[in-house]
Specification:
about 400 residues; alpha+beta; about 50% helix
């Protein structure tokens, strides 16, 4: 007896899921069908799913339908959308209506003229005291849409978070505005600069196993193929090391630099400061160190030793890189004086410390952190005078 042939079960077509905003936009487009401009319509599409929904719901007898449908098909590479375009054209032909030939790659009815807006864009945020900063890149795609990559990177931890996706120009501007609102100051920079920052961050971890870098892995092939990464920090394309004199880096200049709003988070890791603060406390309370001069000398010795332990050659190089990047941010923000201070501090880290001389910038960071930590500790230990003692089991009514 022959084997019974089994028929393959057809998989049901998955319905398209649109957001309430997309449903509203789709209804509006279908209600206002006359005089549709294919180029304007394609630019307003949020993605291939919405584009497919528009194709599937567009009336077959629409006079401008074929041009619009083919334009949409050219703008996206998704197979489901390409199939929807072919089905729409087939159904229109079945009704006896005119249908243009479907070429593998059809010339659209509109042209995109090169302009400043068609070039890739990149923006970088300032670096905080722990090495993190924001990155934004947008890349125009032909014929329509923008590839957008944005996220937060860290010079020690690598890519902390990165999102990549394709948007219409309108939606890209909305995403960009929201991201900038969340991150604060962002300065425009060449894509080669932003790409260099991303590549360095990407190499900080076992990138292939790091899920936080998945978005960047989608952008990376285009970046490596189209962008020449920088061989030196971007600031040196605007300020030369020779133009920065050692005399510019005084205690007052360093203090001015560190009081800038963008430098407020620049402190030494509190976990490293706690034992140093304890040593200083013991020195102040020591019965052996009688005079104030002896105590001050011991405290300075504690701080110098701590700086030597905290800032190894690799850590000094990392801090130098942060200062060079901050010099660029200051320069792009039209604060050239702070750019010079920051670059001078960066260059000073190339000089080795000695028993008698310690780097002024590092010591300023140490003093600042110790002061902040001491004040925070004192405030935490001090009871709040406005806080009333509560009886056990008392009920607090807001």
């Amino acid at each position: 007896m022959g084997k019974r042939k089994t028929r393959k079960k057809r998989t049901s077509k998955q319905p398209l899921t649109l957001s309430p905003e997309e449903e509203k936009q789709l209804h509006s487009l279908l209600q206002n069908q006359k005089g549709l401009d294919p180029s304007a319509i394609v630019e307003s599409l949020s993605g291939p799913t919405f584009a497919q929904a528009l194709v599937e719901n567009l009336p077959l007898d629409h006079p401008e339908g074929p041009d619009l449908v083919l334009t949409i098909g050219d703008a996206f590479d998704e197979k489901r959308l390409k199939k929807a375009v072919k089905i729409w054209l087939f159904k229109r032909k079945q009704k006896g209506l005119s249908v243009p030939e479907l070429h593998p790659r059809r010339e659209t009815s509109f042209t995109i003229t090169p302009s400043a807006e068609s070039d890739p864009d990149a923006f970088l945020g300032p670096i905080d005291g722990f090495g993190s900063r924001a990155v934004f890149i947008s890349i125009p795609k032909i014929p329509q849409g923008m590839d957008v990559g944005l996220g937060i990177v860290n010079d020690r931890e690598g890519i902390l978070e990165f999102i990549f996706g394709r948007y219409s120009k309108k939606r890209m501007r909305e995403v960009k505005a929201l991201f900038f609102e969340q991150t604060g100051l962002m300065v425009k920079t060449p894509v080669s600069h932003a790409g260099t920052i991303l590549e360095k961050a990407y190499g900080q971890k076992e990138a292939d196993l790091d899920a936080s870098a998945n978005g960047y892995r989608q952008l990376r092939p285009w970046l490596l193929e189209n962008v020449d990464l920088l061989e030196r920090p971007a600031i040196y394309g605007h300020l030369s090391a020779d133009s920065i004199t050692k005399d510019i880096l005084t205690d007052s200049q360093i203090k001015k630099l560190l009081t800038h709003p963008l430098m407020q988070s620049w402190i030494i890791d509190p976990d490293q400061i706690a034992p140093i603060l304890e040593e200083i406390k013991n020195a102040k309370e020591s019965p052996i160190l009688v005079s104030e001069e002896q105590k001050d000398a011991r405290i300075n010795e504690i701080k110098k030793t701590a700086l030597s332990d905290i800032y190894s050659d690799s850590e000094r190089a990392r801090l130098k890189g942060r200062l060079e990047e901050m010099a660029y941010v200051f320069l792009k923000s039209e604060e050239e004086e702070y750019a010079q201070f920051s670059l001078a501090a960066a260059l000073s880290l190339d000089e080795k410390d000695s028993i008698l001389v310690v780097n002024l910038f590092l010591m300023a960071l140490m003093d600042r952190t110790l002061d902040l930590y001491a004040r925070a500790t004192a405030q935490a230990d001090r009871p709040d005078p406005e806080e009333k003692a509560e009886e056990p089991g008392s009920i607090i009514i807001p």
